[in-house]
Amino acid sequence: MIEIENLTKNYGNIQAVKDISFTVNKNEVLGFLGPNGAGKSTTMNMIVGYLPMTSGTIKINGVDISENPKEAKKNIGYLPEIPPLYPDMKVIEYLKFVAGIKGIKKQDMAFQIDRAMSRLKITDKKNRVIKNLSKGYKQRVGFAQALLGDPKVIILDEPTVGLDPSQTKEVRDLIKRLGKDHTIIFSSHILSEVNAVADRILIINNGEIKAQDTTDNLEVDRNEVILKLDIEGDKDKVSDILGSIDGFIEILDTIEVSDGVYSYKVSIADDSVRKSIVSKLTMEDLSIMEITTMKRSLEDVFLDLTNNKK
Length: 310
Known about the structure:
6-stranded mixed beta sheet; 31% strand; 4-stranded antiparallel beta sheet; 11 helices; single chain; elongated
């Protein structure tokens, strides 16, 4: 449904997107993850035709967006990070305006608008002036315009920005439902949100794709093992001992759980290193209160791939 090949975007001497390639299948929800400045919004703006690419190919439902932009864009609904709203319009006026721009037939317009408002639960706000709405409702109006025309592809850039927890859950549920009949790319900084909604995740950093797979595969597809160690004793001494053990990689996190007892989240090369850790700490009269193997979380993978360690 979406085919990206060797996509590159340069701003002068700065390469914002670096020769990336990926596909999104029909009725697949792709979570697009990356820190600020990673190239997410630039990539999405090129996919929808808002930004020209420096080089590469983008095909939407088999249509090359460079060769036939009008036909390709018919298949796309887009919600940018800042919704493209006209604040002095009423909600219903704005949606009629967008429907007209999208070329929706007059006989279909009322149905399309009513369905979009119903999906976003803004029907009761249709006669409100947009500038008088809360930030959350403005975001919903922006989402509603993206659904007009029943596009095959929906691109959502930070769709839950400004929403309260209840509204965020509603949008997540909506994305799941839409994913049954639409191909969706959505970006987010909230890892739990991506984990809950996406069929597959793509992680980008410095304009390069660092990983793309299902959450489960990303969480297990690492060589090292993650341990949780609850140890009673001097924190600096424990750190020095762990650092001296062959196969120990690093301490990922440290939390004081009670007076004199610290919980360490550590990575090791393989499970055999566990024996060395237990032996060395015991020899140094440090009490191990608990030791467990942890599943590597999506957050761990993200921080590792984007070099943003805690």
